[in-house]
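Practice record 12: protein with INI.
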Amino acid sequence: MKIIEGNIRATGKKFAVVVARFNGFVVESLVDGALDALERHGEVNEQDITLVRVPGAYELPIAAQRLAQSKKYDAIIALGAVIRGSTPHFDFVAGECNKGLAQVSLQYNLPVAFGVITTDSIEQAIERSGTKAGNKGAEAAITALEMVNVLANIEGMN
Ligand code: INI
């Protein structure tokens, strides 16, 4: 049996982190978690990481698309927080963000990690951004690191 998998060390690979400013009080903790994971676990050089900020989660796909088009990156990590309010805005923003990022990933054949937390409450968002439910930014970065290596190994490049 042949098993292909990937580790999470990606020294020399280039990563773009695209970040929504909306709900910045939780999103900045996701950014800290993602950068820490890339540098400490992935051993990625700081100069190989590009951080792009956009207004909200709805804008993440278009920025990810431009980054993917540039062909400069081995993976993209999208970070944001969509917190449900009393309007249908949540479903539109979360749905389009999720759909758009998945589309960019498949269209450009590039790992796009989904580090966008979608929660019913601010409390749940805080729990997922570095408190009792972990840090979804760090988890997304680890996923991107692994996917870069899995895809390289599938292509037999390693
Ligand atoms: N953007 C978010 O990133 N999170 C949210 O919770 C959110 N809510 O709830 O409205 C949100 N809205 C802004 C949206 O992403 C766009 O920036 C805006 O609609 C302009 O296109």
